[in-house]
Amino acid sequence: xxxxxxxxxxxxxxxxxxxxxxxxxxxxxxxxxxxxxxxxxxxxxxxxxxxxxxxxxxxxxxxxxxxxxxxxxxxxxxxxxxxxxxxxxxxxxxxxxxxxxxxxxxxxxxxxxxxxxxxxxxxxxxxxxxxxxxxxxxxxxxxxxxxxxxxxxxxxxxxxxxxxxxxxxxxxxxxxxxxxxxxxxxxxxxxxxxxxxxxxxxxxxxxxxxxxxxxxxxxxxxxxxxxxxxxxxxxxxxxxxxxxxxxxxxxxxxxxxxxxxxxxxxxxxxxxxxxxx
Length: 277
Prior knowledge:
Blueprint: H1 2-16, H2 29-44, H3 48-60, H4 67-89, E1 95-97, E2 103-105, H5 107-123, H6 125-130, H7 136-154, H8 157-165, H9 173-179, H10 189-200, H11 205-218, H12 227-240, E3 243-246, E4 272-275
Antiparallel strand pairs: 1-2, 3-4
Helix pairs in contact: 1-3, 1-5, 2-3, 2-4, 3-4, 4-5, 5-7, 7-8, 7-10, 8-10, 10-11, 11-12
């Protein structure tokens, strides 16, 4: 954790400092735009550390309230967040001590760093929109969903529920699946569906069933979503819910270990519920 805290301290200092060194000229907007373009190129070629270095340089030379550079700052913060999200899901390189005391790669460290980047982006979002930044609302939506997935992974049910209470549209599985279709969320979807399952299961079992099915289907792509979580969802579907779930075409009872009805290939998420006898 110490390595992570040092990193965040350095990142925060870089993000808030503008022209700290005496006599050092502040780069022009054109120079900063060029650095941001280089950061995008580094991101595209999977050079995560170079992309973060360049994005941090843009952040260190801009301010949240400065409309002229806020768009660059917003885009740099979101780029850095995406780099950290990918690293958290695939190949972490930030390190923190293990139980043994030996530092090792930490997915949680990257998720926390991404959260810090999202915070920086939110602070300048209004100014960035005035400054011509594209898709600010969509980018902030990504930030919200990524953080919801992280809180779900950490088991922070209260914060997940607080967010979902403010987003009632997500309580419908079809609508949620459309919103979570973004490629950046590919490895977070199982955690998002798990949060929604927990949120609705005591008041809408049919929708909870759909979220459970979607979480199971996405589980293989989600780092840390282990077989015990899958087994818990399958057990709820098979025996703990007050409803039974049947194929709407042939009436076959759902088999949680399958993705569709073996008779007619109707996806499990389309099954209907009836009171368990």
